[in-house]
Every structure is written in structure tokens, then in C-alpha cells.
Amino acid sequence: MSESTEQVEVTRNDAAGRYDITVDGELAGFTEFVDHDGQRIFPHTELDDKFSGRGLSSVLIRQALADTRAAGQRIVPICPLVARYISKHEDEVGDIVDRATPEALEFLKSR
Fold it and tell me: Is pLDDT at 77 greater than 50 in this prediction?
């Protein structure tokens, strides 16, 4: 079995309001976020089909949520991928998850 030599990196891109994941320097996907009132709202995640099936969305979301915890913010999962990740990893992040409230959804619409 050969080891992968791909360089996978997740970075927070504040200018675009998202976390980017790159593979060997090529953008593979992102998860968007909006900070509001102590919460980091995750409305949408995308991964290029070229990179699907490799677990990259889990890597991206895990690191984005870890960064959210480190920033002292709570997570609001609007995106189904983020919500699914959280449901499978309650032990990691369940203590900092807030349900999507009408106020949070309205805030997203107003942006």
C-alpha cells in the first residue's frame, strides 16, 4: 500500500467568509460561515466533484468546527453537511451547538 503524498490544508478565509480546503494548492471546496452574536453560522458547504469520495468534507468541517471552538463561539449548523457531521461527532462538538433560530435565519437573509 502506498502513502498519499497529497498536501491537504484547511485555512480560514475571512475575506470570503469561509474555510477553504486545498489539495496540493488547488481549491477543493469550502464551507461558508457568518459570525453573529457569539455564534458562527454555517449556511453552506461545497466540494468540487473532482475531489469527492475522499473524506475531504469531513476534514474541512472538523477543522472549521475546531477553529470555531478555539474562537469561543457557538456553532449553528444550517448546512446539511455540517449538521450531519455534528450528528456523527456529538462527543466532539455537541456541547457548543445551537439550534437554528428564526433570528439566525433572518440575520442570514439580511446579509
Answer: yes
